[in-house]
Design brief:
2 domains; Histidine-containing Protein, Chain: A; alpha/beta; 3-stranded mixed β-sheet
Length: 163
C-alpha cells in the first residue's frame, strides 16, 4: 500500500468518524432540548395543553391553548432554550366555552337569592327548585322569574308554607 493510499484511507476514516460525531452530537442536543422543555412544562402553565417534538434543533409545538397570548407565551418559553434553532407553532387556540348550564345556573342563583328558603340546581338545562316559599303568590312570582330565563324545564319541588 502506497503512502498516498494510506493517507487517503486515514482521511476517509477520519471523515466518517467526524460525520458520526456530528450526527450523534445533534441527536444528543435534541434530547437535551427536549429535557429542558419537559422541565419547563412542570412550571409553565402556558405549556399545560401542549406537546412538543424536537428534530435537529427545531421544536414543533402542537396541542391547544385557551387564547392567543397563551400560544405566544408557549412559543416564547421554548424559543430561549439553548440549542433551539427554530420553533414551529402549530398550537390551536380553543377558547374555554362556558356551558349553557353555567350561565343558567348563575342567572337562577341571582333569582333564587331573593327568595328565602329556596335552593336551585341546574343540570342539562333543567332547573330543579327545592325548599319552601311563603305562599302561592311568592311561588307564582318565583316561577315567572325562573321561566323567564328560558330553561328547558322547571322541576318544582317547592313546599308552600301558608296555603
Amino acid at each position: 500500500m502506497s503512502g498516498k493510499s494510506i493517507v487517503k484511507t486515514v482521511l476517509t476514516i477520519l471523515c466518517i468518524v467526524v460525520a458520526l460525531f456530528v450526527s450523534c452530537k445533534g441527536k444528543n442536543k435534541d434530547a437535551e432540548i427536549q429535557s429542558a422543555i419537559n422541565s419547563k412544562v412542570q412550571t409553565d402553565a402556558n405549556l399545560a395543553g401542549v406537546t412538543t417534538s424536537v428534530t435537529d434543533g427545531t421544536v414543533t409545538l402542537t396541542g391547544s391553548c385557551a387564547n392567543e397570548a397563551c400560544k405566544t407565551n408557549a412559543e416564547n418559553a421554548v424559543k430561549d432554550i439553548d440549542g433551539v434553532k427554530k420553533v414551529v407553532n402549530n398550537i390551536q387556540v380553543t377558547p374555554v366555552v362556558v356551558s349553557e348550564d353555567e350561565t343558567l345556573r348563575n342567572n337562577v342563583q341571582s333569582v333564587t337569592q331573593k327568595y328565602e328558603g329556596v335552593q336551585a340546581d341546574v343540570s342539562g338545562g333543567v332547573v330543579t327548585l327545592r325548599g319552601t316559599v311563603a305562599n302561592r303568590d311568592t311561588l307564582q312570582q318565583l316561577m315567572m322569574e325562573v321561566n323567564g330565563l328560558q330553561p328547558k324545564k322547571v322541576d318544582n319541588q317547592l313546599v308552600i308554607k301558608n296555603k
